Amino acid sequence: MKKRTAWIMAMALALALSLTGCARGNLNGAETIAVLDGSTNITLGEFNLMLRYQQAQMESYYGAIMGGNMYQQDLAGDGTLYGDTAKETLMEEFKKMYMMEAEAPGYGVALTDGEKEAITEAAGKFLEANTEGAKKAATADQKTVERLLTLLTINEKMYDALTRDVDTEVSDAEAAQKRIDYVYVSTLGTEQDEAGNTMELTDAEKAQKKADLQAVLEEARKSGDLDAAAQTKELTASSATYGADSTYPAEEVRKAADALKEGEFADLVETENGYYLVRLASTLDRDATDSRKTAIVQERREALFAEKYQEFQEVHTFEQKDDVMAKLTFERTFTLKAAETAEP
């Protein structure tokens, strides 16, 4: 219970917004933007609030890199503004949340009194943390914020309920992760010509790198210390773990390591982009294997949840109001700000 209410509070405080720019007209937060099963209305206000939170996240993290308002840019290069893509993606999330809420009674999922109190308190703190301008632009009032937090909380509880019976047993064999020590030297080159193009290494330069690595390998096989041997050529050894379904490191490296016994070194490995020295440090790295077990269980949960959600979609209808969706524009730029420094 405490964990859930703490999550609710953290979610609300994370919504603190800052904005710049001008908006065209005022939105009617009570207007219907979508309908579930022909009778349950999704309001423009709750959708807009979540949209602005997501916009703030993206603008805060990537706005400086993208330049300007990234939501008004054609990031994919297909003629579609990123803002339009974001709206459609978010509508899919609302569709899921509303279906989860509709199915919740059948799975015994409901908000506890403590969760309801936490939502009310969290909504109030969110409103205190934002300026009047930010709240108006995000169509945020007590009712709307509470509604959004309710949907998010029920969705989380439904995820737990739908995946509770997932098989959590994963054997070492299924999750096994090997660990290798390796030294890598790129053959792509790093210097650029006057036009800014990366200059490929000459055959002589590549041959020298290969010779240096061969010397490191010979020394490492004698001493058993790959990193110490690498330092003689001003190189550094690194470590990596991988399993049967890994795509990293390079296939040639994994294949070479798979042929080794623990502690053995492979012959110099050549790939498209460089050379590797490889030592098999462990046939089963305990920490990496346990981490992979956790990931496998989570993958099973995601698959089971997706299966259940697909079943729900087959028995529910969902209609989006395109004319209302079109009212949501991105003239304003929203960014996140720490709740403790937000202006009341």
Describe the structure.
There is one protein chain. Strand 2 and strand 3 form a beta hairpin. The two termini are 29 Å apart. The C terminus is likely disordered. The chain has 344 residues and is α+β, with helices and mostly antiparallel strands. Helix 1 runs parallel beside helix 4, helix 2 packs across helix 3 and helix 3 crosses helix 6. The chain has a 4-stranded antiparallel beta sheet with strand order 5-4-7-6, with helices on both faces. The longest helix has 28 residues. The chain is elongated and about 75 Å long. 28% of the residues are buried.
Give a brief rundown of this model:
This protein is of the alpha+beta class. It is built from 12 helices and 9 strands.
Mean pLDDT, as a whole number? Answer: 88
Overall structural class, as computed from helix and strand content, comes to alpha+beta
Proportion in helices: 40-55%
Beta-strand fraction estimate: 5-15%
H-E string: HEEEHHHHHHEHHEHEEHEHE
- Provide the gyration radius in Å: 27 Å
Largest sheet descriptor: 4 strands, antiparallel
Query: Could you give the distance between the termini?
Result: 29 Å
Shape: elongated
Low-confidence stretches: 339-344
Please give the oligomerization state of what you see: single chain
Strand order in space, largest sheet: 5-4-7-6
Q: Helix count, per DSSP?
A: 12
By DSSP, the count of extended strands is 9
